């Protein structure tokens, strides 16, 4: 196994560990607060853990010609492609929640994204019989097929449909959110192009892991800041109400004080 592959496997394992820790620590708060955007990001992180695990297994068992090696390379590579489409489907849901779209009424951009993902899954199933996306040589090494570009095109088209939606509703997002999402989409686009050009590198998986961690942690930070602002506003309101009540209680014109004074004089 080459040094590059060892580095990739190590990075993916650490990516799994970090993602699992974040999911465990912040998952309870996300689901307790009924945070739909946070739920989408949490699910994306969880799927990404499975995706990284499958990619690492594909590297580990590559070239292993035993029965277990033959099975693991095929299962892990199929799962890898399938989970990429699942991840993009969750990203579509994330964009819908972020821009305030109705879950019952699917807009044209969302239908286009799901259509491309369905096309990708159909091609993946065809690949198992024809080697359209990929195949394995006599030594059980992964080989790209003639239709691998379709897989990259499907992913790029689905992301582009989501970007169009974000651009159309950019006014609903803060400047920081727009900048963060733009950088994340840019990183994803560069990784797709890089992986298409440089064969044998898992740039997309590494890039997606970084993007998801940034988006989820940033969202959690905004949630905590919003909660803190709400608590501070409630505390200020309660303090003002208490001060007003004390001022009314100390007023000399209070009826209870007048009655007490007259009774005391008698």
Question: What structural class do you assign from the helix and strand content?
Answer: mainly alpha
Total strands: the figure is 2
Approximately how much beta-strand content do the residues carry?
A: under 5%
Number of helices: 8
Strand order of the largest sheet: 1-2
Number of domains: 1
CATH top level label: Mainly Alpha
What's the rounded overall pLDDT mean? 82
General shape:
elongated
CA gyration radius, whole angstroms: 28 Å
Please, what is the CATH homologous superfamily?
Rhodopsin 7-helix transmembrane proteins
CATH topology, by name, is Rhopdopsin 7-helix transmembrane proteins
Largest sheet: 2 strands, antiparallel
Helicity level: over 70%
| CATH architecture assignment | Up-down Bundle
């Amino acid at each position: 196994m080459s040094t590059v592959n060892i580095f990739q496997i190590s990075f993916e394992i650490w990516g799994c560990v970090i993602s699992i820790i974040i999911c465990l620590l912040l998952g309870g708060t996300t689901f307790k607060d009924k945070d739909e955007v946070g739920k989408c990001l949490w699910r994306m992180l969880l799927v990404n853990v499975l995706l990284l695990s499958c990619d690492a297994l594909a590297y580990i068992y590559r070239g292993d010609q035993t029965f277990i090696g033959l099975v693991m390379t095929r299962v892990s590579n199929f799962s890898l492609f399938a989970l990429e489409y699942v991840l993009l489907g969750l990203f579509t849901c994330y964009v819908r929640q972020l821009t305030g779209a109705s879950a019952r009424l699917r807009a044209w951009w969302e239908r286009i994204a799901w259509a491309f993902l369905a096309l990708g899954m159909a091609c993946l199933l065809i690949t198992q019989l024809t080697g359209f996306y990929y195949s394995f040589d006599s030594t059980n090494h992964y080989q790209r097929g003639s239709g691998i570009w379709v897989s990259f095109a499907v992913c790029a088209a689905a992301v582009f449909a989501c970007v169009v939606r974000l651009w159309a509703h950019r006014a609903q997002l803060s400047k920081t959110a727009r900048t963060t999402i733009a950088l994340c989409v840019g990183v994803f686009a560069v990784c797709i192009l890089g992986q298409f050009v440089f064969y044998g590198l898992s740039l997309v998986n590494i890039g997606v892991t970084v993007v998801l961690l940034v988006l989820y942690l940033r969202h959690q930070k905004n949630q905590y800041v919003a909660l803190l602002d709400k608590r501070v506003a409630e505390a200020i309101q309660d303090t003002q109400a208490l001060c007003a009540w004390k001022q009314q209680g100390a007023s000399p014109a209070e009826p209870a004080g007048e009655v007490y004074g007259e009774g005391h004089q008698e």
